[in-house]
Amino acid sequence: MRRRGSARNARGQFCDAYLLKGRDTNDERRYTFQGNYVTRSRRFDGVDWGLLGVILSLLVIGIVTIYSVTSNGQGGTFPIFAKQAVWMGVGALAFVIIASMDYHKLARLSYILYGLGLLLLVIVMFSGKSSRGAQRWIALGPVAIQPSEFIKIPLLLMLASYYATQTRSGWLYRVIVPGLLALPGFFLILNQPDLGSSLSFLAIYITLLLAVGVKSKAFGLVLLSALMMFPFAWGGLWGSLHDYQKERIISFVDPAYDPGGKGYQGLQSRIAVGSGEFMGKGLYGGTQTQFKFLPEGHTDFVFAVFAEEWGFLGAVVLIMLFLTLFLLGLDIASKAKDMLGALLAVGVVGMMAFNVVVNIGMTVGLAPIVGIPLPLLSYGGSATIMTMAALGLLLSVKRRRMTLIQ
Amino acid sequence: MSDRKLQENGLAELQQRLVLLKIGVLVVIGLLALRLWQLQVRDGPYYRELAQNNRTRSILLHPARGLIFDRDGKLLANNVPSFNVYVELNDVNDREVLIQKLVKYLGIEESELSKKFRARGTLTRVKLKGGLTLREAALIESHRLDLPEVVVHPEFQRNNPQGPYAAHVIGYVGEVSEQQLSQEYFQGLHPGSIVGQYGVERKYDQLLRGQAGRKLIEVDALGHEKRTISVEKPQAGHDLYLTLDFDLQQLAENLLGEEAGAIIALDPKTGDTLAIASRPSFDPNALSRGLSSKKWQNILQDKRHPLTNRAIQGLYPPGSTFKIIMAAAALETNEVKMSETIQCHGRFRFGRRTFRDWKASGHGTVNLHKALTQSCDVYFYKMGHRLGIDAIATYASLFGLGKKTGIDLPSEQRGIVPSTEWKQQFRGEPWYPGETISVAIGQGYVTVTPIQMAQVIATIGNNGVAHQPRLVRGVRRRNTGKVETWPMAKAVPLGLNPVFVEGIQRALASVVSEGTARRANSPLVTIAGKTGTSQVVALRADKKKETPKQFRDHAWFVSYAPFDNPQIAVAVLAEHAGHGGSAAAPLARKLIEAFIKKTSEKTRLGQKRERPIL
Prior knowledge:
Low-confidence stretches of chain B: none
Largest sheet of chain A: 4 strands, antiparallel
Radius of gyration of chain B: 35 Å
Structural class of chain B: alpha+beta
Helix content of chain B: 25-40%
Oligomer: heterodimer
Mean pLDDT of chain A: 79
Mean pLDDT of chain B: 87
Number of strands of chain A: 7
Shape of chain B: elongated
Strand content of chain A: 5-15%
Distance between the termini of chain A: 23 Å
Strand content of chain B: 15-25%
Shape of chain A: globular
Number of helices of chain A: 15
Distance between the termini of chain B: 116 Å
Largest sheet of chain B: 7 strands, mixed
Strand order of the largest sheet of chain A: 3-2-1-7
Structural class of chain A: alpha+beta
Helix content of chain A: 55-70%
């Protein structure tokens, strides 16, 4: 590929050859210009083809599964899987844009972006579109966006840049201040109410907290006070939940209690997963989901659909894809150029891992049904775009892991 | 630069933690994989079954019950189409709302409906109401979309085309109860299956019930039928041919009318039951359709006990009809000779008690023939005294008293044949000789069912050869179309001296021609019989006053005809009707005359007396 040789080295001098070094000893790239040609393309350098492959696989699995559930009957003129394909396209765009941007620039905008997000949440509170007892959406022409999803990225950027610049390590600066920063968003989301999103919002904060670490004494204090606060917090939290959310949590205790009632979803979901057995029932073969015993087969319970159709074999392949994604992400974190990059990468992985584990956990009856979508697989525009953007951030960190040496 | 150093330190620290985070992710994903293995591999088959039950609904297809015919081939029980409404419990979302709607549409009380909704077990489709009117069925069907879990099924309903007649014989049907399902007799049935609950329907349920079929349908979550997976057709039950002569049965019931009582007609030569009537009766059609619990309670609490089949369950003192057995016993044990005479002065003194004859002035000089003809009590008091209670008990048992006759109807009663052993065992007291005197005229502890007395008189008519009464003479197998004719019950000779039997027979003929049962005398046919009047209350305070109905005597008449070639034996019991000669004998005569007319008519037309099965 052609390129003008006008790069500067670390000292700001123009030169024909320069060296980039990552944090690993062997992680280095040397570029030399020969006339107007560069021996190696920089543009796609740092692009992690493994990461892209995993993401693409997950997206394909998602759209095929959504197609399988919704192909009969639903969708009308514009079927759901096609809509999801559009969201994926938009998400891919966001991914490319963010991956090509310098995450430092984004981090500088984080407070403004977070403030914007909070503003949107407030708008939702007052004039949002409500559905099933929850006010979560802002209608934008033909589509409805869900600010509670999008605000996760500004939160991540904000907290990561806060921790990256905050040198004081006392518990006040490690725990309380960032906690206070996150709190308004958390409560605004919980108030919608959207228990799932608010929990995954919280997960970002906790992941970063774990990553930067807190002096054990201080963290112990927080944990202790959290435990002491729990009855009061629970009282307030429980009171703020809607009936269906309470029922979901109650039903988590004993889903078999009343198959027609409260534990219905959990039980049907377990039946779907379990009846897939080792080999699965094949594409479109999932009776549980095809006959609509399991509601939300294309959104929160997409994993159950997949596990019913592809069995233990498919399910394990799927969670291995996620595992690979997380390990690649954590690897990016460990090789990141600076604290900000590392924290961003950890945050993205933490947020996604929390969603994956809780979503699959609730599908297989290990967690209460709190309404968290499965990243990259569940139908939903806002969540898909947000996840893709977060992954773009991850790639951006990887692409900028190297420091110019000469 | 120190800032940079701090950064470097932070990054190094972070890297250490990242190892922990990686391990954490691995562990959590590993746990998920373990859980998946548990759900999909270890418990997979269990969930597969759950999933299959989830989407498939198994619908029980009730078979048509076998038909029931009388001996002339008249249809006594068949099946008519009927709309039944079911609810699929799996598909019910809001029970309360649904119940409210159904109360409105079906007119069933709420408490009764919710009881049905509670029904548990493997059955998920529960019958709410049978025999819907067209209006109700249309109402439910028009709310089809609103009530996806409610289904109206056209099914068979048991029907007795002859209406209320022969109700106690044919019986009625109903849903098998939970308790019944645990019994061996009802093995292989499903909750909701229709089984015989009374009479022949109950006794021969295994033949009549047929084999239920199953339809497997695939449904969606709302319970809408998507397609039929498989159909296993139900098999109709086998047809039953009774020994009953419906014309006689109808007549017998009409003769009893509204009065409580029982009439049994047997063929003495075969044991075939020609008629077995019991009053008051019930409407088998209403019971088969299913009554509301209130109506059902009304029937159960009815003081007249319409559900009791008095012919086989009613226990009465045999009164003077017992003298037939006394006569046989006395002759067989040589306690008396046919010719021996005794003096009857209208009373018999025994110890400090005086036993009176029904005829205060006495019968004068009586031998056995006259004693039976006039029903002389004193003669039999003496015979009782001579025989002793245990000899009486031996002969009463020989004639089949104190045990079930074995007629093919459920819940037959045994009655009591008292003996010293019996009294010691059940009363814990010794037998007092004075009690023997009461038993000698069929009072005291001795109780019998009308069918037992019918068997006694049939045995006498058949020259001392007993047959177990039977109700079914054949079955037509529905699957093969083959007819099985059941052989008549084995003849059991009682081993009585034919001379004695003949003597008793002649005496019984005199009872009708010149004795206590002159009102049974028929110009058409020679009838032999014995009247009986069994006391309900031992001593009547004032004979002139009208005795209250419930204290009046039961009237008995047992008879057979024609005298020289018995073809029918009839036992009549009329509760609280008074004297056997006046209240019971005429009924028997009318029945016998009708029978004789019918047979002679058949003979004239060249028909066989008994229509062969098909």
